[in-house]
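Hello support,

Our group uses your service weekly, and this is the first time we've seen a run hang past the timeout. The protein is Phospholipid-transporting ATPase. I'm not sure whether the cause is the sequence or the server load. Input pasted verbatim:
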Amino acid sequence: MLARIPLISGSNDCEKASLRSGNTTQSQQQQQPNTYRLSEEDEEYTAVGLNENEDHHLLLSNNSSRGEGRTLESSDSQDTLVQNPGKSRAGKGTSDTAYFYNLKSRGKGVEDLRSYDEEGELEISDYTAAPSRRKVTLYGPTDEDDSDEPKSRMSHPGTLKRVMTAIRGGQEEKPERTIYINAPHRNAEQKYLHNRISTAKYNVATFAPKFFYEQFSRYANLFFLFTGVIQLIDDLSPTSKYGTIFPLSVVLFLSAVKEIVEDRKRHAQDAETNSREVKVLDLPSRSFQLKKWRDVCVGDTVRIEGGEAFPADLILLSSSEPDALCYIETSNLDGETNLKIRQGRQETKDILTPEAVAGLEGTIKSEQPNNSLYTYEGTLSFGGQTIPLDPSQLLLRGAMLKNTRWVYAVVVFTGHESKLMRNATAAPIKTTKVERMVNTQIIFLFCILLCLSLICSIGYLTRQRTGMFELYILGQARENALTQFGKNILTYIILFNNLIPLSLIVTMEAVKFSLGGLINTDLDMYDEASDTPAVARTSSLVEELGQVDYVFSDKTGTLTQNIMEFRMAVIGGLAYSDHVPEDKKPRVDESGVEVGWHEFSRLMENKKSHATGPLIREFTTLLGVCHTVIPERDEENPEVITYQASSPDEAALVKGVQQLGVYFHTRRPKSVTINVDGVDKEYQILNVCEFNSTRKRMSCIVRDPEGQIKVYIKGADTVILERLAMHNPHKDSTVYYLEEYATEGLRTLCIAYRDVPEDEYQKWAKIYERASTTINNRQDELDKAAELIEKDLTLLGATAIEDKLQDGVPDTIATLMQAGIKVWVLTGDRQETAINIG
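Update from on-call engineer: The timeout came from a worker crash unrelated to the input. Re-ran successfully.
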């Protein structure tokens, strides 16, 4: 039978895909084809599995079908939809199953299945348009024809639906944004957010409501407002009308002045930021013209000079450095002062002139704005090619260009859609612990005041109603008792209102303002080396400094100097060090096993003749190849090389392995060259599975000079050890030395590798390529792909890196502990390392 099934996509594109269905019996094969559709009202077909040999085929199953297994094929694309004979299921008859291959959609090209779940939710990657994750539901009815001939169960009108579902958060997924390069009018139609920012707490329209809400969230002010209002009523107040409302107005006025002064500083800072200038491409003149940051738009191409900050989130195209490299400082984003490397794609590295930039035509399909500083997913399409974009091409607003003369980049996120501003919260209304305590005490005092007022009102009413003096001498009229009682309560509240002193709030505000000024001028908190004074950004919170119970501190770069030095290594169960203490010198224990540490000079000897020689050579080669370090040659003295690394650990390992006879000196886009004992060897870099906080490891897939493909991997012991092959004779001894290094306060990494057959790599490379070109959820897909090849590893050993404490850290921690403050160290290192640091 012939079925025509409309494919309804999230973009409302519709195409009829032709499928051929027939039973495997001879009688059914002889039937004349007829056209049918699937019905939307009846039974549901869901995705239940994938063909293990063809992982891009989708298995659909109709669990309630009672027919035979069928062979389905697409007559449009001529791609066979593989037969899977039905299998008996208790109470459910026979399954109707098919593998769908190369689903087609008009104007969108080939879509490959990426993943599935038991509910039929699929992630489909599209190479020529925006990929998305869709729910595929196939409906099919029971054939109600009374004919005796066997019939297909799919014989009524219906549809195959693809419904957009969220990848993150369980919400409806928004389509990715499309940015047109050098097409400002098309970008203007998208109505992207402007680049003007505001970090101020108030503006002209919001000052009054926000300020009064904040002030009257304090119970004292609320109480005095209530007292001041009833004091204005002549019949109730035994005191001056303005005895409370005037002092309260003075308090509110002073508080308003303080808020205005502090918020004007924020407005001034915003104005200065928005008025900075950047060079933006002017298409008519094909040159770069200065434009204020606030006028920068999504899709603009900008030129950033060395030392300038990035005005928005940008995609790097090219730079003054070879291979589109640039170096950035992100201290405004994450507090880290070490330089980080960003690199444009090889396809755009030769766009080096304004004319070349102006001639670039293409689109960027980007993820939606989010607050993740370390992730980015997108694609760049131009010149008939589509290339993936990742965080290594992303230049974040707030970062600064360093050690690079200039870069060309395209704006993708502006203003409050930039990742920096997405992480910045609006200035909140904060209350201190003292204020919360005062609010509680004021409620308690108000209850006492109310009780006193009730007692006095009852006493006064009783005397007024029964006392002869009041009735006959004073001649007081007998008005309604309930009305008189209510008036008396309010009158006594006015009389007793000094129980809650108005000066309390005034005094607290004055003290806070004064303390803020003292902090700003305190010489003990002034750092002369960097010319940086202490700054009290919010004077209303200064008393919180005296309420601190815990200090949580990062270790690397905060407690330590962030200057890494390669100190020790264990290879093949033998430990080596650049310096061996007397108590660690090699010796033979009772069992006849040699223990202790060896000098690095012994390692060089063992590399030539010892049984562990092959492991040592593989270990040192791995350290020289498995990294993302960029060597920079000095212009005046080319023999001098400076290593630029995104992580100081990597730079330390590359420098340290020089002691072991491996010298890394050249990096090209697809290869690295190392000098091994005086001989240059070039290793082809096939793929790099980068480090992240979830994986806790990085790996390189390389092809050595002999043509052998290897996986080189380094990472935390917790993730490397669990991925080892069954037979690893040096595992126990390596773990022993890892614990020993950690107790010395050293940072440790495990080193492992394995040889990869050519056919296995070719299959894996296709999976990795598909993962790298997805837009949504790309990092998860890349991590899944890496898992497939990072297995059955051979453990080579481990490294130990020293990161010394900064000057004054021990004294500072001791002082904090004397003050009763508990100090917690936050680190990704082993627990023994953190304990040693503390």
